[in-house]
Amino acid sequence: MAKITLENLAHSYLPNPKSEDDYALKQLDHDWDDGAAYALLGSSGCGKSTLLNIISGLLVPSQGRILFDGQDVTRAPTAERNIAQVFQFPVVYDTMTVRDNLAFPLRNRGRDEAYVAERVNEIARMIGMEHMLSRKAQGLTADAKQKISLGRGMVRKDVNALLFDEPLTVIDPHMKWELRTQLKKLHHDFGHTMIYVTHDQTEALTFADKVVVMYDGRVVQIGTPEELFARPEHTFVGYFIGSPGMNLLPAKIDGNQALIPGGTTPLAHSYGPVSGNVQLGIRPEHVRLSSDQGLPVTIRRIEDVGRHKIIRADLMGHDINIIAPEDQSIGSDMTRAVFDPGRVNVYADDWRVAPG
Amino acid sequence: MDKTVNNKAWFLVLPVLVLVAFSAVIPLMTVVNYSVQDTFGNNVFFWAGLEWFKELLASDRMWNALGRQLAFSAIIIAIEIPLGIFVALNMPKRGFWASVVLVLMSLPLLIPWNVVGTIWQIFGRVDIGLLGYTLDALGIDYNYTQNSVHAWVTVIVMDVWHWTSLVALLAYAGLQSIPDAYYQAAKIDQASRWKVFRYIELPKMAGVLMIAILLRFMDSFMIYTEPFVVTGGGPGNATTFLSIDLVKMALGQFDLGPAAAFSLMYFLVILLISWVFYTVMTNLDKRG
Question: What is the pLDDT of residues B256-273, one digit of tens each?
Fold first, then answer.
């Protein structure tokens, strides 16, 4: 296990990148703490897999360094890094038995058979596959194959980090839950550094201690699930996390007042002058329908999802979503919306502006 | 519920029946007919029963031809399959050169078989052929028209030149279907090049390789044109493979009865071997 440090890291797939747009991964400095579970979250093509492949050594970055416990491994081949990686599509060696699959990385490193057998049995118990060790890996279900590839990673005791590249994509929904729980338990029991790439916010938020949100080749926020929800640093985080995502409205900020279409709304803090493309962000959870206060809205649709109601409405030509409790009855007089002042965030050119 | 009786449906099957009858059943039955009769010309036939079959099975002629045929097929498969895999492994995976190599590889497959024979017939000649002349100049006494080993080597090299591309292209298609993740996982597992081949590439190619072996076997087992053009079956009977012998018997000597019996047994051998291949392949599929 190790602490992984990224220094000045950036990567472009072009031989001579000129502008910032040419970079698939924009410049990044970050420490991955030893033994923590991280999720790398972002939409497809945002650079998550590029970052993961740089860490595992399948890709050499165009600039910057990677350190494992302070030691430079930027150009070290994958095998020397003692990394385990689980891929989107399960990789097993079809013609081998489950036992030989698990033993493969150890035998390749020339460990003696007694040690190999001991480790294989231990790992098989961990992933719950003891009863099928002698089976051929061919023809197993996708989740069993994913468990084998996970086991192949963990069989090495000196493994520095476990990397997951959207490992649950091809798994049936009911098995996803079980595997995710098992992963969390493994992390809890053995304390490996884990980096988990996904585009599924539920997966990211339930798995990780810290979520790294990426957008357009850039890390836009690193934080706990709670921080990402309450204080999205970038409009993308607000939009991407949450269901539905954060409401964004064009605004003008004047001290502790925000001027938005349809009127003004109070803010809990006072802001200095804010320039650029200024937007106000408020989560649907923090908007309340009312009959006599707030801003005028037109309700277009109400979706009852069982545990709450999602109200799709229109505020002076802008879409706005509101989440109302399941038991609240919505009458025809509810034509106004109130924002919770303490929950409003202000953005200038997509980045959050701190009050003060 | 009563079954509807509608005999009109038979009319829809009729075209296929007619086609199959004229293309397969009637010719085959003609051969069967010849194989049990004897003739001295003038379209007068005498019943011979299983006489021809007994005679052929007792004679060395067919057994020798069959032996040469099996040896030839075994040798070219033993060379073309590993060589084809080796070539496929070294072909560029993507980009401009991948297309260039693909086109170059398909060239031998596009040349008509008698032209292939002619090319090698001239290529190997000591007086005007580049290969024959060069070997001769190097002091090697090469002559495929007189030395049966040289004739064999020439015919085998020709077949390898002609058909290794097919194996390589099939193996290449198999290799292309392997996701990158497999190679990345192998790197992480610190697998050697040999293990990558043995546990990733070979299993993934198994299906197409079975097809390649089947195709090459069937094709080489029925080979006629190329050796006929190059060696004419000689020297002596050294390169007289089954179909060359059959043509000699049927058209050269006009022994219709024995030739018909010969073709039937030839046909049965091919049928038998195809069945074995088919069974093995479907079993492999079921496991997969």
Answer: 888 888 888 888 888 888
Q: Which residue of A has its CA nearest to B178?
A: A91
Query: Are A267 and A257 contacting, i.e. CB atoms less than 8 angstroms apart?
Result: yes
Q: What count of other Cβ atoms lies within 10 Å of the Cβ of residue A56?
A: 21
Phi, psi (degrees; rounded to nearest 5) at A64:
90, 180
End-to-end CA distance of chain A: 42
User: Is pLDDT of B233 > 80?
Assistant: no
Residue B145 has pLDDT above 60, yes or no: yes
Mean pLDDT of A301-317: 89
Q: Which strands, in side-by-side order, build the sheet including A218-223? A: A83-86, A161-165, A193-198, A37-41, A210-215, A218-223
* Helix (H) or strand (E) segment spanning residue B257: helix B256-287
The one-letter amino acid code at A207 reads F
From B182, B200, B287, residue closest to A138, measured CB to CB: B287
Q: CB distance A83–B188 less than 8 Å? A: yes
Integer Cα distance of B282 and B288 in angstroms: 10
How far apart are the C-alpha atoms of A243 and A202, rounded to whole Å?
Answer: 10
Backbone angles phi, psi at B24, to 5 degrees: -130, -55
d(CA A92, nearest CA chain B) in Å? 8
Overall size of chain A counted in residues:
356
Burial class of A55 by CB neighbour count within 10 A (0 to 12, 13 to 18, 19+): buried
| ipTM of model | 0.75
Whether chain A has a CB inside 8 Å of the CB on B253: the answer is no
Q: Does B41 touch chain A (CB under 8 A)?
A: no
Q: What is the pTM of this model?
A: 0.75
Query: Among partner residues A58, A89, A152, which is closest to B187 by beta-carbon distance?
Result: A58
CB-CB contact of B185 with B200 (8 Å)? no
* Residues near A201 by beta carbon (within 8 Å), at least 6 away in sequence: A41, A240, A241, A242, A243
Q: Min CA distance, A104 vs chain B (Å)? A: 7
pLDDT at A322: 92
- Cβ atoms of A198 and A42 within 8 Å: the answer is no
Which of the residues A101, A108, A120, A156 would you substitute to probe the B interface, choosing the one with the greatest number of B C-beta atoms within 10 Å? A108
Dihedral sign for Cα B45, B50, B55, B56, please: positive
Best residue of B190, B192, B197, B204 to probe chain A, by most A CBs closer than 10 Å: B190
pLDDT above 50 for B288: no
Tens digits of per-residue pLDDT, A176-199? 888 888 888 888 888 888 899 988
The nearest CA of chain A is from the CA of B199 a distance in Å of 6
Query: If you average pLDDT over every residue of chain A, what do you get?
Result: 86
User: And the tokens for B31?
Assistant: 């051969």
- pLDDT higher than 80, residue B15: yes
